[in-house]
Amino acid sequence: MGGTILRTENLVKTFGGLRAVDGVSIKVDERTLTLIIGPNGSGKSTLINVITGFLKADSGRVLFKGEDITNMPPNEVYRQGIVRTFQTPQLLKSLTVLENMLIANVHPGEGVISALRKSQWLETEEEYVERAWELLKFLKLDHLWDRPAGSLSGGQMKLLEIGRALMTEPELIVMDEPVAGVAPSLAHDILQKLVSLKEQGITVLLIEHRLDIVLGYVDHLYVMFNGKVLTEGKGRVGIERVVNDPRVAEIYMGG
Prior knowledge:
Low-confidence stretches: 111-116
CATH superfamily of the largest domain: P-loop containing nucleotide triphosphate hydrolases
Distance between the termini: 34 Å
Strand order of the largest sheet: 7-8-9-4-10-11
Radius of gyration: 19 Å
Largest sheet: 6 strands, mixed
Strand content: 15-25%
Structural class: alpha/beta
Number of helices: 9
Shape: globular
Oligomer: single chain
């Protein structure tokens, strides 16, 4: 683990009179898998939407690698090195698995002038295809490369969305329920892939409800409730302490 790659400071997001995110301060260390949990309505999704620019904060700051990225639009957040995936994969279902991977990068021959200079972008195109193929093998989707994305199972679609995110060579992936609705065996496979990304220098921040499956894979755990951070734990001992915290049991039983 390295230093802190992402930090929020007293982040606030309101909707009318509701403080959906109420002074939240968290930090995510490099090359870790950080999990945010909490009952429905606790502010988790709003928090990651603010971090990734899909919603604007009312106050507070989001810092990425020490730089203030608060309220940058999603495309600028993406350029900083942060990508996100969604609970429902946002795929182009009529395109093949490989084509979905390749659209993650802007093709160097898409410009009016550059399209005429094939020799200048052909090598880059070949590199994109090679990277896509290696990622599909890593995700065990290479045998499905020519299938329409819409023909995949729910779990395979989530893997494909992860692969498309990796095509951009991000430093941080923010994920909304990556194993929701996925069979347990494939859910474990997805989480194992996420853990192995740490060895490639990639950091993962995720929301997930399936605690029985996900807790064994994470390095840092935050619990949110009513828009605030209720408690947190780091490492096996810290996470175990959070899991056994009576307040955490109470909010889940109450939620």
